Amino acid sequence: MDKPIGETVSAPPRTAVAGVSGFAGGELARLLLNHPRLQGETPVFFGRAGEAEVGASTYLHDLHPQLATAGNMPSNPVLPFSWDRIADTGIEVLFLATPHEQSREWAPEAIERGIKVIDLSGAWRLQETRNRDVYRLKDTDPTAAAALQSEAVYGCPELHRDAIRKARLVANPGCYATSIILGLAPLLQAGLVDLEYGIICDAKSGVSGAGKAATAKTHFMYAADNLSAYAVFGHRHTGELLEQLHLEINQIQFTPHLLPIPRGILSTIYLRFKQTMAPAGVSALIGKFYQDSPMVRLHSTPHLPQIQHIVRTNFCDLGFELGPDGKRLVMVSCLDNLLKGAAGQAVQNMNLMCGWNEQEGLL
Amino acid sequence: MDKPIGETVSAPPRTAVAGVSGFAGGELARLLLNHPRLQGETPVFFGRAGEAEVGASTYLHDLHPQLATAGNMPSNPVLPFSWDRIADTGIEVLFLATPHEQSREWAPEAIERGIKVIDLSGAWRLQETRNRDVYRLKDTDPTAAAALQSEAVYGCPELHRDAIRKARLVANPGCYATSIILGLAPLLQAGLVDLEYGIICDAKSGVSGAGKAATAKTHFMYAADNLSAYAVFGHRHTGELLEQLHLEINQIQFTPHLLPIPRGILSTIYLRFKQTMAPAGVSALIGKFYQDSPMVRLHSTPHLPQIQHIVRTNFCDLGFELGPDGKRLVMVSCLDNLLKGAAGQAVQNMNLMCGWNEQEGLL
Amino acid sequence: MDKPIGETVSAPPRTAVAGVSGFAGGELARLLLNHPRLQGETPVFFGRAGEAEVGASTYLHDLHPQLATAGNMPSNPVLPFSWDRIADTGIEVLFLATPHEQSREWAPEAIERGIKVIDLSGAWRLQETRNRDVYRLKDTDPTAAAALQSEAVYGCPELHRDAIRKARLVANPGCYATSIILGLAPLLQAGLVDLEYGIICDAKSGVSGAGKAATAKTHFMYAADNLSAYAVFGHRHTGELLEQLHLEINQIQFTPHLLPIPRGILSTIYLRFKQTMAPAGVSALIGKFYQDSPMVRLHSTPHLPQIQHIVRTNFCDLGFELGPDGKRLVMVSCLDNLLKGAAGQAVQNMNLMCGWNEQEGLL
Amino acid sequence: MDKPIGETVSAPPRTAVAGVSGFAGGELARLLLNHPRLQGETPVFFGRAGEAEVGASTYLHDLHPQLATAGNMPSNPVLPFSWDRIADTGIEVLFLATPHEQSREWAPEAIERGIKVIDLSGAWRLQETRNRDVYRLKDTDPTAAAALQSEAVYGCPELHRDAIRKARLVANPGCYATSIILGLAPLLQAGLVDLEYGIICDAKSGVSGAGKAATAKTHFMYAADNLSAYAVFGHRHTGELLEQLHLEINQIQFTPHLLPIPRGILSTIYLRFKQTMAPAGVSALIGKFYQDSPMVRLHSTPHLPQIQHIVRTNFCDLGFELGPDGKRLVMVSCLDNLLKGAAGQAVQNMNLMCGWNEQEGLL
């Protein structure tokens, strides 16, 4: 039985977004408002806890002016987060576009109330031990949190489609992690990669990945006409790579860079095969792996993906070049950090949880 | 009777785009492929006459990689333009995203064959006399061309909605012209503007407005981190302003600038009212003018539109500030030059010509 | 006697910059460190009062990494501001790159101590009455402040070269104001402009003009790929235009816009001549006005200045087009807001105050 | 004897630039015009052979408007290239900023005439055998060309300072190659790098590196808001890496990317040490290697270089992070592709060839 949720949610289901004020929240609002399955049932939009900019009469277009409707009618109110409101409106699917700490606190409460949760933060992505190391979250009920953690499904449809369909809590993957995992999974699962040499992931992301807070690093004068590496040997998404790709820490190295563009990630991934390969063989293997995954596009050699091709889409584009030795591979993986790397993937997960085609509302 | 076409085209109608290789052509392809009324009837895509990059086995994603489908399936062929192909496929609506000269030649032939035409070039926008001055087009049959010219409807739905519904040939407006006309029409029609002082339109456009040809001016090193004025006192869109706004050449002045961004136009328009006005009065007048025009959004003072708010939408956003004297007005008008300034407006016109809601496929 | 300072300062003179942490401060440091007349006498660099990032062992390259010397030797300390330190090092010329309030407080004290001051803030640019309206500064000794205000020289060398040479306090002009004043002064002084019609100044500036503070408006995601008008009818630099160009408030209108580039201003200025002019006559008049002003470059028609031409130079570039009626003029004026609009002009003023060629260290 | 040229060139020496119309040529013109040792002896500027834009009355500011002098005086003519002119003006040092083919033809002729040559193309960088493979140049006298090739000095002052001082022909290094060589040379020369694992160089460059020709890839709409990898496993600069770093083809892998910025290169270099190292040891080793090389700046851990820090300077900035295992190293190397990667390094080489301080005119 593939669609347990398809039977339990109403049609259209009642959805809500908590943390709609951030960049991912804004994209999520846009996708849900235009989603063909949600017509007639406008999502409920909440801010984050204690957020100053969400007050008594805040509307979606105050936070995201591009989402204004004709005549700027104040049609989509944004409310301070409230469980009462969630209960009153009978929310069935709750998206959390909130900081780790809030997601860690709110997700159990929502599950308790019988609401399906798709969390866009890092709070539920990692196995319990690593999670405590990486995010240092403080749970009021650690035992219950650990239990929920073990139940949470990592929301990468290309790897865990069936589990997502049945999940109560989906941990939506990190943006960098999605781009790297989708580039590597087919090759690693086939056992082709020589892990002695290690895998190098040189990843570059647009500034929206750094969030909406005005900081020294998100200042236009810092980010524009610039490129900088950061968090070398220490980015939080590394944990997702290790767990989802079944690797040890010394087998993969991931260096993020800040690109002077609004959105998009390009990861250049370097590895060696154990045996000599031909390009057609690599293509066939990847193509087969993703044959039922419509949101992954494999470029035919020698075409490589570029950020422009995937910005404002939910696609992850892959392409590669094989070295003249038939062993060294350069894989390029691109996606939009706010869509396939956040809000788009969250909607893809909702589609699966509701028993719909996973592309609905994403083309 | 409002919808003559609604009765004469099939459902879904058969559409074609000639000149799909350019920026506007690519946006048009994207909009038509996703248009809810065209599902099940894929548009036919043509290149321009004599275009080298469109060959025997060219696909849409070769020209616009972002439009690739899952697995990069070669699903949308692009063909060399051919009347035989148009006849064979029974095209009912033809979009011309071609240079002036080709549009001038092809539109009469298409009309002759009973096909509705929406032309995105400047070939049919101006009255005959001015047209000969501005575009210097050579017609093989000048009398027939002049007759067709007099029948062509300027495709600004906010001004000519009813005529567009009945038109055989719609001349889709220029991008700069659309932004300025929509900003000025309500005030000029109300007779409020003191034309003694003249109207100044300082307009700024992203680089896509300069087209896909690689030239010294579209080189990244010329356009990036730069701003430049051009065609001062001499831009071709001036003619559209004069005709649509019923102005004399010395009553309006329009200076375009090249912005270091991919897309978007912001026009800052300066004028004086004949009499003292209050902001609420100006808002009310504009609001009334566009009350049935869902693609125009009026910002409430003191909010002004920005390019970011309208990029990748079909909206034209308006906002204004009135001087302390109650007479001097600064109007800001923004739109996406490839959408409301080109492909989006073309689809809006198609919607009207087919008897549909003008917003279909544009939200 | 033209060079009172040339005789009273030592060679090389002892200089200091207060507020070196901002963008203009950084440019000032760069110019002074490379200034041929200051070799052997490194300037003293101070932060602003109460500035957290300037501590006990702060060096210039901590604030402006591009100014690091070979091997990143910690050669240029930045100190918390201190009058004792100024006295101990015998500072003769003090640059204030500080907020209005600090400049208003520190300039009188410095003058009192016999130090020449070049203030880059707005604190001393306007005549007393207007100043109180615009900047609302609170003086502990209003009478003394008003007296010093009346003595301050507006630091536009092209208009006030002789007075600057003799000044004790130079108020360095605003960036927008410089671009507009230099574009208009020759035409207004010649009495050619028809002020009935008013002058429209549509000005566009890069983001560095908004300062180093991280705010919602300096966030990369706000500024990039965008354009926005702001402070319509209300920008502080308007006062400088009125005073320096001897205009009334209803005779000139100035609208600033935020460009998605790091630096550079382009002002497009619209006016009408009282009489019919020929382009050569306009060129001759401007050329004569600036014949002894090496930092102004006049483009020959039909070439217009662009931001790229002046970025990282101290030039103000001018160019114009005259309408077919011989009366309507579009003047384009470009400069680098951090150089000719701030630090470069400040050094140009120092050069004059020290009796040197005004271009020293600026080419 | 260190300065053979210092004795043979006049003071100031007579210099010329062939190919001044390109980006590197423009930067070279700027540097030479402001060079303190060349005051009073303006360089002679030539176009390339057969270049349409260089005609009878072309001036430097026609090609590079930012280099206009006050009043736009036509002070720096640009001439069609001519050996007669070179003879007439007694040129002693000739910079070739010309395509490979022209440099290959002109350099021998200049050397024959007793002129020192600094060639910015790839024509003379590689040993003869590899050169024939990579650049496929056709020499009219292959034996003479091979002889000259063996005499040419690779113009990396940090590696070949003494040889450059005595050279008749300096082959100025490639921009990518300079950034990678300077990052790796100290570690490789110390024998610390485990070459079994191979070295990965993920390099990113601004668009000026692609040259001034208007092509599909230099179009603003291609380059802006984008990132793309290219020439994977096949970039011409690879040969320089192999020769200068004494590596085999399977020991180093170099992938260039096109950044959406005008200028600057950042190379992220991944390697493993043979033995466990401490950060201080790595720093000390690099610091010692460059102790007499003022144009290399080493950042102290954990600071990493960024493109902004080096743009418009002749510095190459280095910084690194060492993995927790003490073996895996991420080295970041940044430079301005038009300066340290081209024109600036060429002037640095001229300084050495003339017996001057290598930093002259470069700070």
From TrEMBL, chains A, B, C, D:
Biological role: Catalyzes the NADPH-dependent reduction of N-acetyl-5-glutamyl phosphate to yield N-acetyl-L-glutamate 5-semialdehyde.
Record gene name: argC
Sequence similarity: Belongs to the NAGSA dehydrogenase family. Type 1 subfamily.
Protein name: N-acetyl-gamma-glutamyl-phosphate reductase
Catalytic activity: N-acetyl-L-glutamate 5-semialdehyde + phosphate + NADP(+) = N-acetyl-L-glutamyl 5-phosphate + NADPH + H(+)
Organism encoding this protein: Edaphobacter aggregans
Domain Semialdehyde dehydrogenase NAD-binding: 14-167
Top-rank EC class of the record's enzyme: oxidoreductase
Primary subcellular site in the record, as a coarse category: cytoplasm
Entry's Gene Ontology BP terms: L-arginine biosynthetic process
Gene3D superfamilies, sorted: Dihydrodipicolinate Reductase, domain 2, NAD(P)-binding Rossmann-like Domain
Localization: Cytoplasm
Keywords for this protein: Amino-acid biosynthesis, Arginine biosynthesis, Cytoplasm, NADP, Oxidoreductase
Molecular function GO labels: N-acetyl-gamma-glutamyl-phosphate reductase activity; NAD binding; NADP+ binding
